[in-house]
Amino acid sequence: LREKLGLGGDAEWEDELIGEWDEEAAAAKAAAAEEEGIEEDVDEEASKAAVLKALEEYYKLDYEQDIGGLKCRFNYREVDKEDFGLKPEEVLSMEDKELNDLVGMRLLAPYREDGWRLKKQRFKVAAALGPKRRAQAELAVWHDKRKEAKRERQKEKKAAAREGGVKKAETGVPVAGKKVKVT
């Protein structure tokens, strides 16, 4: 580069630094080394095969993401489903503190290889979720459903009040202080 600009310099060193490389330059370098009596133990075919294999592996990766401005590719790791004996309703109804007490995040680290710790934790969760705990979780789910039903009834009341205070006769639910007769 410096030589091209007329500043002088070592073109070979700059090409190596920049990464410019082609087959002609490699052949010329090998011929020069052969003339000097130096034999290089470089197998071109093997190095090209290694590069192609690395590129193939790179493009097989599942996911690409920008991390700190750099594009990174990585494989997702296959893991077994682990519910620790909890039902989805129980997980959703419990507080974060309760869930962390039962199953700490340190045990759920995706890079951890210690499967035996997870098995021990599963037994701990099963013991902690005795009949009393399960009843509490089910009660919390029941309360959530009841609150949702109450909200729906309130929405219906407001809609009926806007329509003139009369509701469909088949429900028999008092609306806006009036009772509707079911016939």
Automatic annotation (TrEMBL):
Skewed-composition ranges (Basic and acidic residues): 144-170
UniProt record similarity statement: Belongs to the KRI1 family.
Kri1-like C-terminal domain ranges (all copies): 52-122
GO biological process: endonucleolytic cleavage in ITS1 to separate SSU-rRNA from 5.8S rRNA and LSU-rRNA from tricistronic rRNA transcript (SSU-rRNA, 5.8S rRNA, LSU-rRNA)
InterPro entries the record matches: Kri1 (IPR018034), Kri1-like_C (IPR024626)
Coiled coil: none
Name this polypeptide is given: Kri1-like C-terminal domain-containing protein
GO cellular component: 90S preribosome; nucleolus
Region (Disordered): 144-183
Originating species: Tetraselmis chuii
